[in-house]
Design a protein that fits this description.
CATH class: Alpha Beta
CATH topology: 2,3-Dihydroxybiphenyl 1,2-Dioxygenase, domain 1
CATH superfamily: 2,3-Dihydroxybiphenyl 1,2-Dioxygenase, domain 1
Distance between the termini: 22 Å
Number of strands: 8
Radius of gyration: 15 Å
CATH architecture: Roll
Structural class: alpha+beta
Shape: globular
Number of domains: 1
Helix content: 10-25%
Order of helices and strands: EHEEEHEHEEE
Largest sheet: 8 strands, mixed
Length: about 130
């Protein structure tokens, strides 16, 4: 793992949370997009070389909607940048971690992603991210 890629924060409303984070961070988001397969809309802020991803559910049966229902708004996951997501997934499987997908999936911000089950990471949802070739 190379570095922390971003911190994901589950929010009820991108509009409301986006205004709050604009004020808090003193900057505008650099990207807003919807990831249909994940039933989520995202908004990214870059501050001091670090990224914050706000996540809003686009469907009541999405992972983010269920997370907010159980835990409320707040930190949802921490993402790590990797050079070779397939190799990192294989390494983590070998170490006994449970991955939430068999293959990398297309994610927001032009990334391949895979999540590691929080049951095997001390209660923290971990995301692996690798830049997709364009």
């Amino acid at each position: 793992m190379e570095r922390i890629e971003h911190i994901g924060i589950a929010v009820k409303s991108l509009e409301t949370a986006g205004l709050l984070y604009r004020k808090l961070l003193g900057t505008e988001p650099y990207k807003t997009e919807t990831v249909e397969p994940e039933k989520v809309s995202t908004q990214f802020f870059n501050v001091g070389g670090n990224k914050i991803e706000l996540l809003e559910a686009t469907s009541p049966d999405s992972t983010i909607a269920r997370f907010i229902e159980r835990k409320g708004e707040g930190i949802h996951h921490i993402a790590f940048e990797v050079d070779d997501i397939a190799a990192e997934m294989a390494r983590l499987r070998e170490e006994g971690f449970i991955l939430l997908s068999e293959e990398p999936l297309p994610g927001a911000d032009n990334k391949w992603v895979c999540f590691v089950h929080p049951r095997t990471t001390g209660g923290v949802l971990v995301e692996l991210c690798q830049e997709r070739s364009v």
